[in-house]
Amino acid sequence: MENLTDKLKRPLRDLRISVTDRCNFRCSYCMPAEIFGNDYPFLEKSQLLSFEEITRLVSIFQKTAGIQKVRITGGEPLMRKDVDKLIAMISAIEGIDDIAMTTNGSLLPVYAQRLKAAGLKRVTVSLDTLHDERFKEINGRGVSVKAVLAGMEAAEKAGLGVKVNMVVQKGMNEGDILEMARYFKGTGRILRFIEFMDVGNSNGWNMEKVFSKQDIFNTIHAEMPLQPLKPTYQGEVATRFQYQGSDEEIGIISSITDAFCSSCNRARLSAEGQLYTCLFASKGHDLRSVLRKSENDEHIISILKEIWSSRTDRYSEERMQNTDKPR
Ligand code: SAM
Ligand code: SF4
Ligand code: SF4
Question: Which candidate in 163, 176, 197, 290 could, as Cys together with 124 as Cys, close a disulfide (CB 3.0–4.6 Å)?
Fold first, then answer.
C-alpha cells in the first residue's frame, strides 16, 4: 500500500461512520426540535447504506489508506436496528483493530453487552451537565442525567472503556465545567470538553456562544491545577491535560479557537453514503451510487484515492483567519 496523502500532506487515518440520521434526543445545538419535528423527512431505509455496503467500504478504506480505527456515530447510532451486527462485521475486517462509538448513552443499558460481544472496544458518551433541569432542556426530550449515567455504568459493566464528551456553550452550561470535572475525576472516565461548533446551519451558532479552550482550561486550572500531556499520536483531536499530582487526564477539543486542520486526518461517511473530507464540508462525494453501480473494488479504490489526494480542506483555520480580520 502506497502512502496516500492529501494536498497538504495529511494521511487518511480516522473514519467516522454515521449509521443513521435519526435520534431519540433533540439537542438544541444539533437537532433543534423546531426543525426536526414530526414531519421532518428523515432518510428511508433504502437510502441508508446497508451493513454490507458499509463493511465493503470500510474494507476498501483499509486497503486504500491502511486505516485501523473506525468510529460509529449518528444521529444516535443505537437507533439503527441491530447495529451490533455491523460492529461484528467491521471487527472481522483484517487490519481494523479499534472500533469506538459516540452515543448519547440512553440506550446503553439495553445494548452494552451485545456491543461488547460484537467487538466494540470503547464508547464516548455525551453529557453536557449534571443538572437535571438543564440537561432536560438541552436534550429536548426530558431525558434525565440519571439515564445517561446508567448508560455509562452499563458500558463499564460490559467491559467497554468510557469517555465523556461535554459540549460547552456560553450562556448555557459553562458554569457546569468544574462540577463535571470534579464528578468524573477519579472515575476512570476521561472527560473531554468540546467547543460549541457551527455544525449544520440550524443551531444558532455564533462566536459569542463559544466558551474557548483557554477559558475552559483557566476554569479548571484555577481549582485543580493541570499540566499538558504529549499527544499520543499525530493528528489527535483533543489536547490532553493531566491533573497535577495524579495520572488522571482531561481533554479539550478546540475546533473553533485553536484549529488543528494542519494535522487533520479525518473523513466522515454519512448514513446515506456521502463521504465528507471535513466535518464542516457542505458538499460530500456520493459513494453510495458508486457502490451500487460497481462490483469492482479496484474502481472504488481509485475513486477514493482521487478524492483524498485532491483534499484541501482547512475550514476552521480559514474561519479563524477571517474572524481575526479587523472589520
Ligand atoms: N448522538 C450521539 C451523541 O450525542 O453522542 C452521536 C452523534 S453526536 C452528533 C456526536 C458528538 O457531537 C456529541 O458528543 C455531541 O455532543 C457533539 N455535537 C453535536 N453538535 C455539536 C455542536 N454544535 N458543537 C459541538 N459538538 C457538537
Ligand atoms: Fe442526538 Fe447526539 Fe445530536 Fe444530541 S448530539 S441530537 S443526542 S445526535
Ligand atoms: Fe479537519 Fe475540517 Fe476540522 Fe479542519 S475544520 S480539523 S479540516 S474536520
Answer: 163
Give residue limits of the domains in the chain: 14-321
- Ligand 3 atom closest to Cα of 316? 5
Ligand with smallest separation from the Cα of 311:
3
Cα 169 to averaged position of ligand 3 atoms, centre (Å) = 20
C-alpha cell recorded at residue 324: 481575526
According to DSSP, residue 220 is labeled H
pTM over cut 0.85: yes
DSSP letter at 5 equals B
| C-alpha dist (Å) from residue 149 to 30, 125, 174, 257 | 21, 9, 20, 30
Which ligand sits nearest to residue 211's alpha carbon?
A: 1
Q: How far is CA 215 from CA 141, 201, 304, in A?
A: 30, 25, 39
pLDDT single digits (tens) 273-311: 999 999 888 899 999 999 999 889 999 999 999 999 999
Could you please state the CATH topology (level 3) that the domain comprising 14-321 is classified under.
TIM Barrel (3.20.20)
**Ligand 2 centroid to residue 122 C-alpha, Å:** 18
CA of 30 to the centre of ligand 2 (A): 6
The atom number, within ligand 3, closest to the CA of 237 reads 6
